[in-house]
């Protein structure tokens, strides 16, 4: 991860074990054109495959996380062309990344930008962030999870209000309703997100990834099946070095030395 130069994104490793991916299409407020999504998928898959990386931070600029799918690219598409290319199907690839992703959202997270943030595992918002699903104003509806993930995050009636009116909501509202886990000063947001990612990356990765997979399972299945999934993953961790080490370190009052095995 991190060696390749991209056109629409920047990649770096600000501290060990943390991959930082920055959307970088400033003239279009990070509108998510297809080439950008392809680069993003490539960078996230590279981070997922890199054993030295434990967690990922995805951010944009202070003005805009991402102002949505690229409207200029979309405007001439037809039903035949979107069906033939299965338009936006590849956006969902981000939800298949095994390592935790923190979306650090400053500025606009609108339409596909809000949906992209919601494909991450944790959202931290800069105090001036503006979220919204304004697709209705363009004659369409959210197409990359907005009606599903926003509804699960903030509740059905509130989601209906924002998706049907296209109104934006603030960072503080996002936090009050459980969409954003924390709100930071805009200038501190990325540093704080990298710190949290470093903390997550310091733990045993098998446990971290089992935790992520189990939490996500709660959106897929009923409670009984979800509890069963959780228990199987929990039991499986007793076969790992990191479980022995984590519990031994606690008993011996020392720091654990996790090996991701
Ligand atoms: N697509 C393409 N270009 C954009 C987009 C966008 N979504 N958003 C902003 N831009 C461009 C503007 O056209 C402008 O370019 P130019 O300088 O060449 O005219 C530049 O970015 C700066 O934008 P503004 O001048 O408009 O900046 P303001 O600060 O005045 O306004 C706003 C900022 C409020 C964010 C405004 O730009 C805006 O309303 N943008 C559109 C927001 C929107 O409707 N997003 C939803 C898009 S639809 C969508 O995401 C569907 C998702 C479906 C699933 C995914 C499908 C791929």
TrEMBL record:
GO CC annotations, alphabetized: mitochondrion
One term of GO molecular function: enoyl-CoA hydratase activity
UniProt superkingdom: Eukaryota
EC number(s) on file: 4.2.1.17
Keywords: Fatty acid metabolism, Lipid metabolism, Lyase
GO biological process: fatty acid beta-oxidation
Main enzyme class: lyase
Family the UniProt entry places it in: Belongs to the enoyl-CoA hydratase/isomerase family.
Protein name: Probable enoyl-CoA hydratase, mitochondrial
Whole-protein coverage range: 86 to 346 of 346
């Amino acid at each position: 991860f991190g060696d390749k130069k991209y056109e629409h994104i920047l990649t770096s490793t600000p501290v060990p074990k943390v991959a930082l991916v920055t959307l970088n299409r400033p003239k279009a407020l990070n509108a998510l054109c297809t080439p950008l999504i392809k680069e993003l998928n490539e960078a996230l898959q590279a981070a997922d495959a890199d054993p030295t990386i434990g967690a990922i931070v995805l951010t944009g600029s202070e003005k805009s996380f991402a102002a949505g799918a690229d409207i200029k690219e979309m405007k001439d598409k037809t039903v035949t062309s979107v069906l033939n290319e299965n338009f936006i199907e590849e956006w969902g690839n981000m939800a298949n990344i095994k390592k935790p992703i923190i979306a650090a959202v400053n500025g606009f997270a609108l339409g596909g930008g809000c949906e992209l943030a919601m494909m991450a595992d944790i959202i931290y918002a800069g105090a001036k962030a503006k979220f919204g699903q304004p697709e209705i104003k363009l004659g369409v509806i959210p197409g990359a999870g907005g009606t599903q993930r926003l509804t699960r995050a903030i509740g059905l009636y509130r989601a209906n209000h924002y998706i049907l009116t296209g109104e934006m909501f603030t960072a503080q509202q996002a936090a009050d309703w459980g969409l954003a886990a924390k709100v930071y000063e805009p200038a501190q947001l990325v540093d704080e997100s990298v710190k949290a990612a470093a903390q997550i990356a310091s733990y045993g990765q098998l446990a971290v990834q089992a935790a992520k997979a189990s939490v996500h399972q709660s959106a897929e299945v009923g409670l009984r099946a979800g509890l069963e999934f959780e228990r199987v993953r929990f039991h499986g961790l007793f076969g790992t070095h990191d479980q022995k080490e984590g519990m031994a370190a606690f008993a011996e009052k020392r720091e654990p030395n996790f090996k991701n095995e």
